[in-house]
Amino acid sequence: MTTTTSDAPASNPPKTSTTIAMEILAEVMQFRRMADAHACTAKPCLSCLSPHLAKVVSAIDQGQPITFVLPAFPGKSPNLAKVLGPLPDMAEQRSLEFLGGLCERVRKHYAPGAKIILCSDGRVFSDAVGMNEENVTAYQQVLSHMIEDLSLNSSISTFTLDDIYAGQDFDQMRRELLAQHGKPLEVLQAMVRQGGKQPCDRESEDAHRLYCGITRFLVEDSMFPGQTKTRSAIQKECRGRAYQVIQRSNAWSESIANRFPDCVRLSIHPQACGSKKLGIRLMEADSWMTPWHGVAVDIGGAFRPFEARACRCTWRRTRVPRRASEPLRAFSKS
Ligand SMILES: [Zn+2]
Asked: Ligand 1 centre and the CA of 12: distance in Å?
């Protein structure tokens, strides 16, 4: 184990890479999303840290930034009751600023700082969640412009399915992904069933939790104005589609792990103590709603994501001008 003197006062002994790595992880884990209320919610225990520690130590030993990968920012929900349109808005901006701030927080402990690669997964399951392909493309482009406009390019970058399978049509990209990294649906269904029982192993429990979360998102996205199907019919349909989304999502996860083996894996979903993924908030305030499932609402200077329909009646719509692309849209409490 090497040591570093980069940010240690002259009178103190130099910190080891492991000590710095633990400080960095504790800093990031302040903004963790945890699956269960647990003693380590306030302070990460060794089990919380251990899946990520070796990667962080290795980056420090090489003097490299700590790099995180986060599958997220797929595209705006197709449900216009929840969002204002298909393009990133103030909700995404606030989220990017928060993630950029997280990288700066790491820099307090370690001069090379941190980078986050946003592995935008919209193309991976756009057909399964009812997202228009052109909207996914436009969302990805505007998100990249937004990162540039916010001068976050040194810490935040994007990576998409289009980057891997450039030049192929979108269905072909997804077929290639599943052929290389996909698992049979039956295996996934058995694991989710097992995860709904007690006792069960960690992997099955995580799979069941993800299945419930994805099903909920799919049901909400299907409850758009003018929907004629009953809620129970929608729920049945979404339970089937959830398996397809998770199958693709898992294949995307494996593809990312192969491509970025040295990066710490973040997740937008809450994770249990000891998980290989680190569940992370996307805004300062903890919220189960992601920026792409809602709009940003300014409540006393702090933005939180809300469904657009919850805001339209009671909150004044505001427009914040931007240099490039669409005007940013947000609501402010009047
Ligand atoms: Zn723990």
From this structure: 29
The model's pLDDT over 140-166, given as tens digits with 9 standing for 90+, comes to 999 999 999 999 999 999 999 999 998
Q: Which residue has the tokens 């909920």?
A: 216
Residues that place a CB less than 5 A from ion ligand 1: 40, 45, 47-48, 273
The closest of 47, 60, 51 to 19, measured between CA atoms, is 60
Distance CA 165, CA 182 (A): 16
Q: Are strands 316-320 and 328-332 parallel, antiparallel or unpaired?
A: antiparallel
Burial of 85 (0-12, 13-18, 19+ CB in 10 A): middle
Q: How far apart are CA 234 and CA 194, in angstroms?
A: 24
Q: Determine the length of the chain.
A: 334
Pairing of strands 114-120, 66-70: parallel
**From CA 326, how far away is CA 323, in angstroms rounded?**
9
Burial class (CB within 10 angstroms; exposed 0-12, middle 13-18, buried 19+) of 225: exposed
213 or 66: whose pLDDT is higher?
Answer: 66
Confidence band of 331 (pLDDT split at 50, 70, 90): low
The angle at the Cα of 289, spanning 287 to 294, to the nearest 5 degrees, equals 130
**Across all residues in the chain, what is the average pLDDT?**
87
Separation of CA 31 and ligand 1 centre (Å): 14
78: which DSSP letter? S
Sequence-distant (≥ 6) Cβ neighbours of residue 213 within 8 angstroms = 269
Ligand 1 center to 32 CA (angstroms): 11
> What confidence tens digit (pLDDT) does each residue in 275-284 have?
899 999 998 8
Domain ranges in the chain? 15-332
Reference 128, options 210, 217, 33; nearest CA is 217
For ligand 1, the distance from its centroid to the CA atom of residue 272, given in whole angstroms, is 8
